[in-house]
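Private note to self, pasted from the team thread so I don't lose it. Backbone tokens:
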């Protein structure tokens, strides 16, 4: 029997650790959900994701409702009020239940004397909601992005920035990858339809399907047997452009959590794949994914900047470098990215990408293919990075991935498509 917990106080503590301490929600949430029922775990996720998605608007509302901010040891109550506001604005939870549970959260946070304040602020919001929201929806906070990121998007993409921001603020679609070693996409889609769900095939990526209604993996036909994997369409594009072949030596660099490693092996089951990542903890996920799909790869912990330490001087036919990046293309899946990233991070990440690219290039065979990918939508990490690389390496040839001659292919997040992603394909002359 799962014990009853106050989810609002748990959400407030989790949010404080993300926003104030810079911890990742992807790391915090599984631990917070550990002793919860599936229903409570889902609600906790909804509250945390929802507050992080709409943070600037909630902050602005609190500023209007309170004369003094809650600071120091009372800071967690600031996030508790945010959780209350989010429920009143964006969920179907009855207002009386949202209020009662949120106010009770103050007791759990060992601040019972503040219950009156929290109740007062939330009730005041209810009274002022129409006027307050009209006012806030005219303010810069309505874009729900930090000012530095908004400015970068407006400069880089003057025509598309509003579309990007809008997509970032939506819930992401659920994409699947059908394992072609078991079924064709059409065969598996028929099995899915028999189970009462439906999906739309991606027009470009041959294994990708978008679920009509997001579902738990337990309800997907053959998930445990490895027939299908949850993976965004744009992430699947990496293997389409890499085009791995049987018998080749292939490096998947920055491989964790292993979605692309297993996709390479689905496309070329007799390839020799080395999967390398710097993070030992995240490499566990690579092993788990290989085990579920009954596949084998050479898995190594290593730093992409120093391939001599782990490569055994191997020369690879193909290299997939899914480079460390700002992750600004996957904000709809990870809304905490908006509050964890800083403007200065972009130049630091671009310098790291440059280092890894230069270090790994000598390990590609002559005639070999390197696909550089990021889940970023910022030019410094993408086409500008590759332009600079081509200037430094005369033996590198760029292969266009679209009808025009632009460097690489930049995708933006889209409600009916994949996340924001960039790919560039290089051949070693």
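Design output:
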């Amino acid at each position: 029997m799962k014990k009853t917990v106050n989810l609002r106080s748990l959400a407030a503590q989790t949010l404080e650790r993300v926003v104030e301490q810079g911890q990742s929600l992807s790391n915090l949430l599984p631990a917070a959900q550990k002793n919860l029922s599936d229903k409570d775990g889902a609600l906790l996720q909804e509250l945390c994701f929802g507050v992080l998605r709409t943070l600037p608007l909630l902050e602005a509302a609190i500023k209007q409702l309170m004369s003094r901010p809650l600071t120091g040891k009372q800071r967690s109550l600031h996030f508790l009020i945010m959780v209350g506001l989010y429920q009143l604005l964006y969920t179907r939870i009855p207002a009386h239940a949202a209020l009662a549970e949120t106010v009770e959260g103050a007791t759990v946070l060992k601040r019972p004397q503040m219950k009156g304040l929290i109740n007062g602020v939330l009730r005041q919001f209810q009274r002022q909601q129409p006027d307050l929201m009209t006012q806030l929806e005219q303010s810069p906070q309505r874009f729900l992005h930090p000012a530095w990121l908004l400015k970068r998007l407006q400069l880089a993409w003057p025509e598309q920035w509003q579309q990007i921001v809008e997509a970032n603020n939506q819930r992401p679609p659920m994409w699947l990858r059908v394992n072609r070693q078991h079924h064709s996409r059409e065969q598996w889609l028929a099995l899915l339809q028999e189970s009462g769900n439906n999906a739309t095939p991606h027009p470009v990526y041959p294994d990708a399907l978008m679920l009509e209604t997001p579902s738990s993996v337990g309800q997907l036909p053959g998930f445990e047997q490895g027939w299908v994997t949850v993976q965004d369409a744009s992430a699947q594009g990496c293997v389409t452009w890499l085009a791995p072949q049987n018998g080749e030596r292939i490096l998947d660099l920055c491989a964790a959590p292993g979605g692309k490693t297993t996709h390479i092996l689905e496309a070329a089951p007799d390839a020799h794949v080395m999967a390398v990542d710097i993070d030992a903890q995240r490499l566990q996920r690579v092993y788990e994914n290989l085990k579920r799909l009954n596949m084998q790869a050479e898995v190594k912990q290593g730093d992409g900047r120093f391939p001599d330490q782990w490569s055994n001087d191997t020369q690879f036919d193909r290299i997939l470098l899914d480079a460390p990046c700002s992750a600004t293309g996957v904000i709809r899946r990870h809304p905490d990215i908006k509050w964890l990233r800083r403007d200065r991070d972009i130049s630091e990440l671009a310098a790291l990408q440059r280092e890894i690219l230069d270090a790994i290039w000598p390990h590609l065979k002559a005639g070999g293919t390197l696909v550089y990918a990021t889940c970023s939508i910022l030019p410094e990490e993408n086409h500008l990075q590759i332009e600079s690389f081509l200037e430094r390496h005369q033996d590198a040839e760029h292969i266009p991935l679209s009808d025009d001659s632009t460097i690489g292919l930049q995708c933006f997040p889209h409600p009916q498509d994949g996340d924001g992603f960039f790919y560039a394909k290089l051949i070693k002359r």
